Amino acid sequence: MLIFDGDCGFCTSSARWVERRLPDDVEVVAWQFVDDLGALGLTAEQANAKAWWITPEGDLRGGHLAIGESLRAAGGLWGVAGRIMLVPPFRWLARPVYALVSRNRHRMPGGTPACRIDSPR
Q: How many structural domains is the chain composed of?
């Protein structure tokens, strides 16, 4: 399952892009439409701060790890890119890149002022 910020246009368009590439049994949902975030092990603050991948076992992967896992699950060349993103040293590089994009998501294509998050990532 991929959880994203449905109030952010950039996040929504990114989530829909990956959703088209994921298997049909993988759910992609805006955190605002999750009835009980606590049951998933998340708070609203955490869900608003970054994307989350939830494994079938219930393990949480946030931020750059969520993106890597979602690409891995997409398979094909995207799956290769996702696998690479999840191993050092690429994993270490993906973290600051995700943080940079996340802090500036209101400036990204599809971004709006609603995408701005003033809290640290």
A: 1
With beta carbons less than 8 A apart as the criterion, state whether 66 and 50 touch.
yes
How much is the pLDDT for 80?
Answer: 98
Give, in degrees to the nearest 5, the angle at Cα 65 between 59 and 67.
110
pTM check: above 0.90: no
Q: Is residue 120 part of a domain?
A: no
* Strands annotated E in 1-121: 2-4, 28-30, 52-54, 60-62
Q: Show the tokens assigned to 66.
A: 């969520």
Neighbours of 7 (CB within 10 A): 15
The pLDDT confidence band at residue 34, using thresholds 50, 70 and 90, is very high
3-state secondary structure of 37: helix
Grouping H, G, I as helix, E, B as strand and the rest as coil, residue 43 is coil
- Is there a domain that residue 54 lies in? yes
Angstrom distance (rounded) from CA 108 to CA 85: 21
Domain that holds residue 47: 2-115
91 within some domain = yes
